[in-house]
Amino acid sequence: MLLDKPRGLSSNVALQKARHLFRAEKAGHTGTLDPEATGLLPLCFGEATKFSSYLLDAPKGYEATLCLGETSDTGDAEGQLTPGHGPIPSSCAVIEETLRSLLGQQEQIPPMHSALKHEGKPLYDYARAGIEIARPARQICIFKLELLGLEGRFLRVQADCSKGTYIRVLAEEIGRRLGCGAWLSSLRRNRTGGFVLEDALTLEAIAALDDSQRALLLMSPETLVHEVPRLDIGINEAQALRHGQSPVLLAPIPSMLIDQTVRVYWPDGLFLGLAKPQANGQLVAVRLMSESPHI
After folding, report:
1. Residue 34: active-site member
2. Which of 10, 148, 176, 192 has the smallest count of CB within 10 Å of its CB?
3. Can you say how many angstroms the Cα of residue 9 is from the centroid of all Cα atoms in its chain?
4. 62-187 architecture in CATH?
């Protein structure tokens, strides 16, 4: 289900509160939001947790508010603020040109104030102790960077990006290119893969529902992998996979699906799981649903 995470809660605390409401034994989320960030946090329960990694890799979208004219040693409001060296641009054209210059593939160094681990400890623990750890740059991609508004010192942008992108670091880079400095004032995630914030509910809204109403919020696990190609298979092959016989012989296999992960379905259209067709006509199970009426 899709949660609208509030400010002030870690992603894990929000997950545990939702897990309690749904009485789920097993639960996971699909991409951490910082405690001060809000917005879309897809949550997985039970069987859906098997497929959550596919959404972890999905592109994300954020509405970010930047405070111009200052820098922060953490990139956000928690840090020590220092006045910038240049004037805040008054022209939207200048800002839009700067945003366009940041589109595309690039390298980004993760910030010290992050939850990335070094020797088992999060980087922010080292940062708080005044210790700088070398961090390798990672490849990211900025797909869209749109100016939404400029009100005094506060610049609002829509940023659509690849997984692993730190919007705080992007905000700092925008400030550097504008010449005035910037730090991330607020962040709200509004898209993860094909899911959008408009379809999400708050914890308070979920808590106000009864169990039958909450059940209607839950989507099929296959929605997590809806962009993966589909392959319908016969009852004998489906039953063989379901009972742990992998690989199974499956011919013919469309050539465009060879060596690709595919969604596989029972003949009646029920989602079975993920598998990978081989060039020799065999189908190898990747991750299958444990619960199925087709025994």
Report:
1. yes
2. 148
3. 17
4. 2-Layer Sandwich (3.30)
